[in-house]
Amino acid sequence: MKYKNIILLLLALLSLSYKPAQDGDVMVTVTEGTNMAVALSPDKATIAIALQGTIWTIPAKGGKARTVTDEMGDSQEPAWSPDGQQIVFHSYRDGNYHIWTIRKDGTGLKQLTSGLSDNREPDWSPDGRSVVFSSDRSGNYDIWEIELSGGRLKQLSTDPANDSNPAYSRSGRKVAFVSQREKAGVYVLENAVEKLLISSDLRIAAPSWSPGDKSLAFVAFTGKSMLFDDRNTSYLYVADAGSGKLEQVSKGDEDLFPFRPNWTGTDKIIYSGDGKIKQRSLSVNTTSVIPFEATFSLGRRSYPRKKYDFDNTSSQKALGIAGPVVSPDGSKVAFGALGNIYIQEINGKLIQLTNDPFVDLEPEWSPDGQTLAYISDREGFMSIWLHDLKTNKSRQLSPELKEDTSFPSWSPDGKTIAFYTMHYMKKWGPAILNVADVESGEYRVVNKAVAVPSKADWSPDGTKLALMALKPHSTRFREGFNAFMLVSVKDQSSAIVSPDPDKPLGVRNQGGPAWSPDGKSMAYVKDGTLWMIPVTPDGRINGEEKKLTNELADNLSWTGDSRNIVFIATDRLKKIDVVTGKISDIPVNLNWKSSLPADEYIVHAGKLFNGIDNSYQSNVDIYIKGNRIAGIRPHSSHQRGVRVVDASGKVVMPGLFEMHSHQSSNVGEKLGKIWLSYGITSVREPGADPYDALERKEAWESGVRPGPRLFFTGGLTEGTRVAYGLANSVTEKNHIRMELDRAKRLNYDLIKTYVRMPDSIQKVLTAGAHQLGIPLSSHELYPATKYNVDAIEHLSGTSRRGYSLLLDANFRSYSDVVQLIVRSGINVTPTACLRTGYPRLAKKYDELLDDDRNRKFLTPEFLRGLHTQANQYDSARTPRADENYKALLKTLKQISDAGGRITAGTDAPFAPFGSSLHAEIWVYAEAGISPFKALQSATIRAAEAVGVAKDLGSIEENKLADLIVVDGDPLKRVQDAMKVNQVIKNGKIYTIRDWLKN
Q: What pTM did the predictor assign?
């Protein structure tokens, strides 16, 4: 009910003219399901199916499926009541997984569990009085039971490891469940006593008792994960319920789904696999298929897309104000923008502190206000520099440290600086917290491997550091709440505290905590707004939290008197007096202009691939005027003085789009060069610190440093639980409204929702995004395709379920996935190179790693690691891994052949920036997609998905001059597209060999 109210209130609040398309606009009938669970009714007359998040029923002999639940609840893993009148299942309807029941005719929907926990995998007791399920309500997954008459909960297992997938015995006296304890396997609970029945290193799914309780059947996997593991083979087992003796029933030639099998008697089992509902006879070991067909209705409609003005040369306000921090005396604010460090005097002048071709970011005032620490890549990697404001000179803090650093933070006495080390290619991974002596530069580790933390802030006595860190709800799934981590500088011990244990705090990258200089308060972000709470001198919570603003707040810093907090309020800097509540603007007098060339020249192309036609035009001249293509004509001789770029022995093709990358300006000046050197002139970034992204975008567009076009969004718009540091929990109606307003004011190009976002809110965000003219992208297929979500990120992406409805544990998708993608027209960016594609191709093609661009832009350590992965790949391969990889390729080919929209993206930096886009395109070619269509996925199809095909994606008259010059024959051998000699981005020519020489 809570989320239903949010939808209604927000639609009214936004005055959205959103009217869903009529059901039946697109009807899709499927006869296969991907990772569908099945449950046989007690009378053996009906089968319940969980298919794409909806519960359906069919006759046990097969037939047309009828919906029992609606599509909005992500309803999974059904089980029947013993009288066959009701179905129990878990559903994500209210933003957490809870146990629900419904009558088999679709009436009487009822919620059994509630609260902040996740509750999964229910089974109904034979006497009908209770339901058993797994839950993380105690801090890890345990087995719980709920009495249906009064709702009383009882915890049945208490081991610190994760217990899951419980099943009542037919007598009701026992419960079997799966445990990940040190002795992993299937346990049986009887009379409050647990017994390990089946010890196994396999990943066991859900057990099921036979009639008479003599046997247990279950599916198990050879890999480490039921989400994705290229080594997975799945088997059906039957175990003796007394001795635990196992019998392998299947041969490993079936693609089995990780759900509870159904006994139809002592000899037959119904289960799901190979996209089908199957029945197996144990005595003769034969299988048959129970056919079904289910029809989905999709409401798809177009909407007016955002308009782009790529020729704008007017002065624009700088929005990429990165890491602003107020001076101790409260008179100035330092920040990074356009690649340099600036100081804005409050109500005064703007001072540019640094002016160099490198990237300078993350300023931090010394306690006396005389020195600014900041990070810069002027030594080839991000290191900390100290700038003396009196002498106007900078020195490196720790010259011996050769790792990338971030988030410098001064101790109260000015003698020590805390900071993180983290390799730039793993910016989304763990960071190591260090402290360094300001005078000597000597440093030491004080905390290891914090997952994408916030900037650390010091206690007044300098003994502790406070930072935002993730507190997972269990070890079974990675998501949890953001909370304060208090780290002892002396002994490296740590503790987690939170001002609101029932909510995740703000985005870790920029949401605090900021410890007041007097040590009495911490400021932080929650539900998008600014809060503060009293704390003890050692950082423990010491009072009630107080909300300070009703607008978005990011990047918090205190004045030295602990009276004021400076923060980013969407698109401006503000200051709040925490005593009076008065808020005032801090104008920033910084503007920039797009750098548009005025040059006119001709590119003489021996062959032109225009991105539209599947063959070359030969011997043509491409006329460039300023930043646009003025014409394309047959080659002719030209008068002396006319500038001609000689590509007569080469291929000219459109600049490439990288459709899925998560960047950081902390990579430094080389990031833009990496993209351009691989022919990538446009990057789509579906998840970023928006102010960091804007710093990058404005620096590239203004010509401060070379780089591609950037199409970006803010953080990962998430539900009640988060994982990554840039995940933004957005579940309250005012927060949703403010985030849509931020998207408008910061000029986002898309909105990206993440895996814990419930459909009820995602539907509202989709309508809001479309009102702004921008697409919304998610990890979900259905009902996202019903309410007009524009794009899917990853075929093999993370799922809140522990299994995916797009691609199963053995890398297979079935016709439900293919048809829903193709018939809806939703765009898919598969990021297939992540699933062993990159090391496979690096092993197969030396040119992927043996490249001067890698030697120039990657650290030797990182490049050695890539070579090691490639060299070790053969030893890690198995015949099954090859089969699973081919299954993924088969799905790509099916989507492409059926007319589905595929665009190339990689999820870099999880794969290397630049080269991984080419690996992704090569994967498509390995799937049997023609080089022509593979290249279109990174050119015109990508431009269409972004909404810029009028200006980009192909080489045509009047389009923007984004094109690349390559050797070889990419329409015959797609690998040749990586042989980039020159790049023209927005009419400006870059010669790759010049960067590699310098």
A: 0.96
